[in-house]
Predict the 3D structure of the following.
Amino acid sequence: MISIFYGLMSALTWGAGDFAGGLSGRKLGAYRAVLFGDFFGLLILFVVAGIYRENFPTLYPLLVAALAGMLGSMGLFVLYYSMIKGQMSIAAPVSALLAATLPVIVGGMLDGLPKPLQFLGFGFALLAVWMISQGDSAEKFHIGRLADLRLPLLAGLGFGFYFVLMDAATRATTSTFWPMISSRTAGTLLLLVFVVARRESLGVPRNAWKVILINAVLDVSGNLFYILALKTGRLDVSAVLSSLYPGATVLLAWLILKERISTSQWLGIVAALIAIALMTL
C-alpha cells in the first residue's frame, strides 16, 4: 500500500510539475523551460543531499542513473520534435502508452507476474494514459503510414527506459538522492548542449522565475516519490501509477485555466480511478 501511495504522489506531483512547466514554456519556449526546470531541480537535490548526508554510492548505480537521465531527456526532445512536425494527436498517447508498457514487461521478468486484479488494473491504467493523453485535438486520430509512429515510439522508449533504468540504479544502492543527482546532471547537460546548439537565448524574463522554481520543486518531488515507490514495491506497479501524471495536468488545466476536458479525457480519468482501485486489492 505504501508503494501505491508513493506512485500516486509521483503522478500528482509530476502532473502538477508538467502544468507549471507548460506555463513557463509559454514564457520561455519549451526547451529552455525544461532546461531551467532541470537546472534548479538539480540545485535543490544538491542541497537536500547535503542535509541528509547519504553515503556516496558506487560508480555502477550512478552510471545507470546517468544513462536513465540522458534517455529521458532524449525522449523529451523526440516528443517535442514529433509535435512540431504535426503529429501531436499521435505523439502524446503513443509515447505515454509505451512508456507505461515497457516497465510492465520488465517488471514481470524481474519480480514475477502480478496478481490477476493488478494485471487488470494495468490494463485500465494503460487505457487511461492513452485516453487522457489524446486530449481534444482538432485532428482526426489517423495513422497514414507506419513511419508516423517512429518518433512517438522512440519518445516512449526513452521514457520507458528511464523508468526501468532508475529501478536498476535504486536496486544497486541504498542511496536515494545521489542516483537522482546523477540522472538530473546528465539530463541537464544534454539539454544545455541542445539549447546552445539551437543558439537560443539563455535569458529569463523576470515574471517567469516563480513558475520555473515551482516546476523544479514539483518535478524533483515526482522523481523522489517514484524512487520511493520503487524501493517499497514492484517496478511495474510504481511505473504504471506514476504514468498517470497526465490526469493531474489535465485536471489542473481545467480548474485553473478553465480548459475544456474532452469526453475521452473524462473516461480516461474514470479508467485511472478504476485502475488505482484494482491495484490496491
Notes: The radius of gyration is 18 Å.
